[in-house]
Design a protein that fits this description.
The chain is of the alpha+beta class. It is built from 15 helices and 8 strands. It has an 8-stranded antiparallel sheet. Strand 2 and strand 3 form a beta hairpin. Helix 3 runs antiparallel to helix 9 and helix 7 packs across helix 9. The longest helix is centred in the middle third of the chain and has 29 residues.
């Protein structure tokens, strides 16, 4: 279900802009950084990748090494699955980070932890606590086996509840079973320390409740990764087709009446693509709980794009799911219609979503999608 399990390497040109922590890490390990020019003409230090493991990108995001990710290609059709996989990796990574942040905050405010803090003022466990991995290994000598038992204790009731919920479709049920385990697999070491440290405490049921509540909350949010990846891809293709139509019109100078029909011819499409400057898709992942996706269109008409995006949010749709809509209308330009689905899905799970269109110059339009998890 997760993108990183589908293929070992993704083959797309990726620009990774680093945070201060990421820059320090790479420089301390004698890794040379590049000065990278972004779509909005800013220049930042980072690294450039072509063939890369999705899990390596996810690891960098979880370590707070990544500020922005940008893809720049003349066309997206041939790399459709790779772009969608990368989108899901970014969204899942952000969710894992936010899940850990919110969960730890809940755990240290449980009564049994607060009682422990009152009795151990020199070893307080609160939101400011930082314990090194080396120290945690010392404090948890049988860590692997203890965590394995704790995971089963936590997951069994959650999985039973998922399987018993008749409102979930088979696809949702499979996704939720998978994602609850993945969120626990990526749970921070210090949270596991608290769970195992108080496993035999009379106040442990509160810890269990907090953990399961947060797990179920993010389990339902996880479906947004698929929605967002589909929407990003369709918006990218919408921009791409607009660019191709404009380029074809300038190349053929009115010779062809129906440019959409022309672009459906693979040979003609490739010929026009070879004349294009690349389009861009950027994701900003540095802020806690916030994701900003920007799609740049170098041939877009600003007012037309802006009006289309705004009307799409108002229009909505009566179809049941985004996946149904995607399957039934695959031949249509669905990008703007997806905005309604994502907006509705975000409201359902308490994620704030905003979309807007900005113009940087006469030929550069940016569609921005902001998510606050």
């Amino acid at each position: 279900m997760c993108a990183q399990e589908k293929k070992f390497l993704l083959n797309i040109p990726l620009k990774v802009i680093l945070t201060d922590e990421g820059t320090s890490h790479f420089m301390s390990n004698n890794k040379k950084l590049m000065r990278i020019k972004l779509a909005d003409n800013r220049e930042k230090f980072g690294i450039s990748l072509n063939n890369f493991s999705p899990i390596s990108v996810q690891t960098m995001i979880l370590l707070d090494y990544v500020k922005n990710i940008e893809i720049c290609m003349p066309e997206f059709v041939s790399k459709r699955q790779e772009v969608m996989d990368l989108s899901k990796v970014v969204v899942y990574s952000l969710m894992y980070k936010q899940f850990n942040h919110e969960l730890f905050s809940r755990l240290v405010n449980c009564e049994c932890v607060r009682k422990y803090n009152r009795s151990n003022p020199t070893q307080i466990l609160d939101e400011q606590t930082q314990i090194s991995e080396k120290e945690l290994q010392r404090l948890m000598p049988n860590r692997a086996s203890v965590i394995k038992k704790a995971k089963k204790l936590i997951l069994d009731p959650v999985w039973k509840e998922i399987m018993a919920n008749k409102n979930y479709s088979p696809e949702e049920r499979n996704l939720y079973l998978l994602m609850t385990e993945k969120f626990l697999d990526r749970m921070s070491s210090i949270s596991w320390f608290i769970v195992t440290r108080f496993a035999k405490d009379e106040g442990f049921p509160q810890i269990e409740r907090e953990l399961r509540t947060k797990l179920m909350e993010y389990m339902e949010k996880s479906q947004l990764a698929e929605y967002i990846s589909l929407m990003v891809m369709e918006l990218a293709l919408s921009n791409e087709n607009a660019n191709l139509r404009k380029k074809a019109a300038s190349m053929l100078n009115g010779v062809v009446e129906n440019y959409d029909e022309l672009l459906r011819d693979p040979k003609e499409r490739i010929r026009i693509i070879n004349q294009l400057v690349g389009g861009n898709s950027t994701a900003s992942v540095g802020n806690r709980g916030k994701l900003e996706i920007t799609l740049y269109n170098k041939a877009g008409e600003f007012e037309e794009v802006k009006a289309s995006v705004e009307s799409a949010i108002v229009a909505g749709s009566k179809r049941k799911t985004l996946v149904d809509f995607y399957s039934d209308d695959a031949d249509q330009n669905l990008g703007l219609s997806y905005l309604s689905y994502v907006d509705e899905a975000c409201k359902k799970v308490g994620v704030r979503f905003e979309s807007m269109v900005n113009q940087f110059s006469n030929d550069l339009t940016a569609t921005k999608l902001n998510f606050d998890f």
